[in-house]
Amino acid sequence: WHVYVSGARATAAADAAALAAQLRRAGAPGRGPLGGDAFPLPAHLQGQSRQQLEKVIGREVAAAAFAAAPQRWIGPLRSPLGLHVLWVSRRDDAATPPLAAVRGRVLEAWQQEQRAQRIAALLRALRERAEVRVESRPWQERRKA
Hints:
The chain is mainly α. The protein has five helices and three strands, in the order E-H-H-H-E-E-H-H. It has a three-stranded antiparallel beta sheet, with helices on both faces. A hairpin with a 3-residue loop joins strand 2 and strand 3.
């Protein structure tokens, strides 16, 4: 769970500290509103890798989330965007998914790589066979400069 306090507030640090204290008293996130300011992502983020969290809330805040003991509020934590108060429900060890679960993505990536290699080979062959002359006056003047 993620609660955000905008860094644009003049009282951001005090507001975030008061919000963190309120959330700690309330305990686990319930069904009610958590407070804080609007953030582009939902308050409840599930199944996020460390890299995904870094993109959303910054490296330092993501590192704190992954170091935190589950089932408690941490923060406020400062990022370039503002302040964050987090609840880590649980943390699962990273695991390589079985091939059956990612087969489609692996095949698509392999096919895309094969297409890129064929296009690169075709362009090399075209450059070897064809003479390229640019007759545009602006291009020629820029080349002379």
